[in-house]
Amino acid sequence: MRFHLALTLQALWAGVCQAAMQHYPAAWGHYDVCKSQVYSDEGLTWDYMACQPEAADMTQYLKVTLDPPNITCGDPPETYCALENPYMCNNECDATTDELAHPPELMFDTEGRNPTTFWQSTSWKKYPKALLVNITLSWNKTIELTDDIVLTFESGRPEQMVLEKSLDYGRSWQPYQFYATDCLDAFTMEPKTVQDLTQHTLLDIICTEDYSRGYVWKNDKTVRFEIKDRFALFAGPRLHNMASLYGQLDTTKNLRDFFTITDLRIRLLRPATGATMVDENNLSRYFYAISDIKVQGRCKCNLHANSCVYDKEKLSCECEHNTTGPDCGRCKKSYQGRAWSAGSYLPIPKGTANTCIPSNIGPVIRQNVSSLGVANRKEECNCNPFGSVSDRCNGTGFCICKEGTTGPKCQQCLPGYLWDDGCKSRVCDNELLRCQNGGVCVNNVRCSCTSDYSGLLCENHRCESELGGCGGPDSGQAPLTPPSLPGLLLLLLLGPALLRDASCWPALL
Ligand SMILES: *[C@@H]1O[C@H](CO)[C@@H](O)[C@H](O)[C@H]1NC(C)=O
Ligand SMILES: *[C@@H]1O[C@H](CO)[C@@H](O)[C@H](O)[C@H]1NC(C)=O
Ligand SMILES: *[C@@H]1O[C@H](CO)[C@@H](O)[C@H](O)[C@H]1NC(C)=O
Ligand SMILES: *[C@@H]1O[C@H](CO)[C@@H](O)[C@H](O)[C@H]1NC(C)=O
Ligand SMILES: *[C@@H]1O[C@H](CO)[C@@H](O)[C@H](O)[C@H]1NC(C)=O
Ligand SMILES: *[C@@H]1O[C@H](CO)[C@@H](O)[C@H](O)[C@H]1NC(C)=O
Ligand SMILES: *[C@@H]1O[C@H](CO)[C@@H](O)[C@H](O)[C@H]1NC(C)=O
Ligand SMILES: [Ca+2]
Which positions make up the signal peptide (predicted)? Predict the structure, then answer.
């Protein structure tokens, strides 16, 4: 008989919380508990599960940087005209007066009823030189986005803008989405909307005209990056099947990384003008003003923590399962009995903890096995040839198991893996993870594709013949950045060779 005592534990954790630290609430739901006590035949023992912190408003924990640094209005004081009326020029910005200042913090404060508080840039005095502003949000911590990013503009939505992300603390950047009144003109990209995306083009970077078209900014001030619509491609329209999404996230690193960030950057390239012509006599009508930025997410703790603390201006996971590091990304010092691995969402709903195990269990057994092994070493090992790296021991009496495999002879699979000449992660089934394009799911671990297709789920059309023979105009495949001229030249030069070996659709999975 097993009784779960997770409630007691929650109380225990609550007691551990220090007043100086801000804890996210650990509400009940999927993956909110890292361990629970159970009564079994051996007495009171622990059960370990995959766990993650609750999603929270991440704007409370970021650092904002503006480039250029002096782009905020008010130094020197300036007077603005309303965009819709050039004769209404009684809006003042003065950095030295609290009521008239518009510092960056006002993008992250709590909006009361009225009046809205907003950050505002200087006006477009240097027209026709572009009015460029970068707003960088840094967490110094990996974050997993759980909801749409929403920006609210108070002076009309920008006519051109790029949202970028970094996964390496700002060292490198990738676009997330392009926004323009005219995508072709601004970025030489076909306009698309998130509704055009499918499971296979989900990671495509698109340019959208949805958030800047027309002069209706009075009614809709928001610009979004649609996380939920993307989730819905796996989890269904009302996200009722999160299990399917979690299953996908577990097995698909690209997908997981797509929603993971350490920094965001909003590149404002052209303010709202409300007209095709810029009124050069009244440039104080053109500026950027943002009243609110929403970023919902959770600390990435590799499924080894259900709580993340903000202490001394720093976010970090409260690691369980004997892991450590800001993201619980390694085993604690004396718990390196096996290689670290992230927890797994599978099997749903409790996942697999993949705890770190004590290092000192190793040497004791090793001594005994090796003293036996001196006389009779090879037979003594007999490691499973499929599950282990080699059928021989590693010299001290241990079989070295391949990924996903466990047991003294590497003959068993870790949860989430299935045996098929070794342990393979679950790739396909006949429900949510269907093989595409006529492929057949074999033992849940691979798709057997028809001759025209390749890829994990047979999602890639093979292109044996001429350039452009695959995909077609709306195949929806855009590389992370619009194709560059050197890249196109390279493709033309190497094209036939590349196309013979690789498919022309970049693999999603
Ligand atoms: C910001 O500073 C740069 C040089 O430091 C200067 O050229 C620019 O005019 C300043 N911009 C504003 C709006 O004051
Ligand atoms: C903003 O970031 C881009 C790179 O993403 C950079 O080229 C540019 O110089 C930065 N600063 C401004 C003011 O645009
Ligand atoms: C970021 O976090 C690391 C520790 O995780 C710390 O050493 C570093 O100083 C932080 N950087 C900034 C800019 O806060
Ligand atoms: C420009 O704005 C000023 C107020 O700053 C206003 O007096 C003037 O009439 C406007 N000019 C035009 C051409 O609209
Ligand atoms: C981790 O280490 C502690 C002692 O430091 C132990 O009580 C606990 O059971 C260990 N195992 C896991 C999976 O947390
Ligand atoms: C190792 O062998 C010794 C005696 O040879 C024994 O006392 C000890 O319990 C063994 N340890 C393990 C972990 O089997
Ligand atoms: C053999 O494997 C064990 C367990 O993983 C490890 O502790 C030991 O260092 C390995 N020995 C050699 C010689 O690689
Ligand atoms: Ca505000």
Answer: 1-19
Q: How far is the CA of 271 from the centre of ligand 4 (A)?
A: 19
- pLDDT per residue over 473-485, tens digit each? 333 333 333 333 3
Low-confidence ranges of the chain (pLDDT < 50): 1-29, 362-375, 377-379, 465-509
Bridge partner residues of 121 (DSSP): 72
pTM above threshold 0.90: no
What is the domain range of residue 499?
Answer: 464-509
Which residue, of 351, 374, 397, is where some domain finishes?
374
Query: What's the rounded Cα separation, in Å, for the pair 397 and 420?
Result: 26
Question: CA 244 to CA 434: how far, in whole Å?
Answer: 12
Residues 196 and 234 in one domain: yes
Asked if residue 267 and residue 321 are part of one domain, the reply reads no
Name the 3-class secondary structure at 469: coil
The DSSP element (H or E) to which 230 belongs, if any, is: helix 227-235
Ligand nearest to the CA of 393: 7
Residues 142 and 256 in one domain: yes
The answer to whether the CB of 67 is under 6 A from ligand 2 is: yes
Q: How far is the CA of 338 from the centre of ligand 7 (A)?
A: 9
Looking at residue 391, what is its pLDDT?
67
Contact 86, 275 (CB under 8 A): no
The binding-site residues of ligand 5, defined as CB within 6 angstroms of any ligand atom, are 46, 48, 320-322, 355
Residue 316 parent element (H or E): strand 314-317
Would you state the pLDDT for residue 396? 75
* Per-residue pLDDT at 493: 37
Among protein residues, the one with the nearest Cα to ligand 1's atom 10 is: 70
CA-based angle 195:238:161, to the nearest 5? 40
Residue 299 belongs to what H/E stretch? strand 296-299
Instruction: Return d(Cα 431, Cα 29) in angstroms, integer.
Output: 24
In the prediction, which pLDDT does 100 show?
A: 95
Please give the C-alpha separations between residue 442 and each of 42, 226, 419, 421, 490, in angstroms, as whole numbers: 39, 34, 12, 12, 38
The terminus-to-terminus CA distance of the chain in angstroms comes to 42
* Residue whose C-alpha is closest to residue 353's, from 35, 66, 85, 122: 35
**3-state SS, residue 317:** strand
Picking from 295, 307, 320, 232, the residue whose alpha carbon sits closest to that of residue 62 is 295
In degrees, rounded to 5, the angle at the alpha carbon of residue 288 between the alpha carbons of residues 147 and 266 is: 40
Residue at a domain's end among 374, 391, 422: 374
Query: Which residues have C-beta within 8 Å of that of residue 497, sequence separation ≥ 6?
Result: none
